[in-house]
Amino acid sequence: AQSVTQLGSHVSVSEGALVLLRCNYSSSVPPYLFWYVQYPNQGLQLLLKYTSAATLVKGINGFEAEFKKSETSFHLTKPSAHMSDAAEYFCAVSGMDSSYKLIFGSGTRLLVRP
Amino acid sequence: GAVVSQHPSWVICKSGTSVKIECRSLDFQATTMFWYRQFPKQSLMLMATSNEGSKATYEQGVEKDKFLINHASLTLSTLTVTSAHPEDSSFYICSARPGVGRGNKETQYFGPGTRLLVL
Hints:
The structure holds 2 protein chains of 2 kinds. By secondary structure, chain A is mainly β. In chain A, 0% of the residues lie in helices and 51% in strands. The model of chain A has no long low-confidence stretch (mean pLDDT 92).
């Protein structure tokens, strides 16, 4: 069975500071891993994904994530936070079966202080 | 590319009525569409998976007679909440996955969501 754990339901950073959102996964097969962002009252937007190619994945809006198999982690980072980054972030895992169903973490709300 | 729309964006209805929500992939053909439900300040809960031309697969605990899903074409899936009650009030989000032959077949693209309020 697959699962995702996001440590920290809320993360608060100052504008310009490093953003680090943690995600650990459990999967019995090589996973696909995703980070999505959700702004209030909106759907989810894909930030980036890992599909067994490069372990360091660059996404939109300056975000990147590194797949570390030994740590079963896929943490999301951004060197310098902007006020516009304030949102809910979801990490998700899927297997390589034909359905590609996603299993979501509980989400992390990023707060950016001026 | 990979745009998914939902209609309506919000709906208010009386208890006992049925509500239909449409999910469309605008610039790609979606072999599979997914329907999620999200409660305030919570993560997404997968309700069902629908494949074009076949019956939807519902997750455990989701009433298939309550939440009717139709995936009649490669670009349209509908969710009908039948005999809606206040406890059905929620944010419903769909996603679509490109079909075979597309490089992004493992990726789900999400619609903007539909907020349902049942009075």
